[in-house]
């Protein structure tokens, strides 16, 4: 079974309409980053509590996660072996 491991995460403001989310990890599950981004956006909008992120990361399935963020604007920056 495949697993994903996140080693670093950061957010920063780009221009006035852009927020940059960087995630570093060892192996990613399908839609993993998009699910994380969608959940954090919901937290930022006040649609779910901040404590949800820890609970969701510990959960065995992602059915309780936020909406999957659209792929538009998502870029793979680097792959290391």
Describe this structure in words.
- With 81 residues, the protein is of the alpha+beta class.
- The chain has helices spanning 32-44, 52-58; strands spanning 5-13, 19-26.
- The protein contains 2 helices and 2 strands.
- It has a two-stranded antiparallel sheet with strand order 1-2.
- The chain is globular.
- The mean pLDDT is 85.
What is the secondary structure topology, with strand pairs?
Elements: E1 5-13, E2 19-26, H1 32-44, H2 52-58
Antiparallel strand pairs: 1-2
In short:
This protein is an alpha+beta fold and 81 residues long. The chain has helices spanning 32-44, 52-58, and strands at residues 5-13, 19-26.
> Could you say which structural class the secondary elements and strand pairing correspond to?
alpha+beta
Question: For the terminal residues, how far apart are their CA atoms?
Answer: 20 Å
How would you characterize the largest beta sheet?
2 strands, antiparallel
In one word, what is the shape? Answer: globular
Uncertain ranges: none
Strand line-up of the largest beta sheet = 1-2
- The helix/strand series, from N terminus to C terminus, equals EEHH
Mean pLDDT figure: 85
Number of helices: 2
């Amino acid at each position: 079974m495949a697993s994903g491991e996140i080693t670093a995460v950061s957010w920063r403001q780009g221009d006035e309409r852009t927020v940059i989310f960087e995630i570093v990890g060892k192996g990613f599950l399908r839609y993993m980053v998009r699910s994380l981004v969608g959940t954090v956006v919901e937290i930022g909008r006040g649609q779910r509590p901040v404590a949800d992120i820890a609970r969701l990361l510990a959960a065995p399935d992602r059915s309780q996660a936020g909406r999957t963020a659209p792929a538009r604007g998502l870029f793979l920056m680097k792959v290391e072996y």
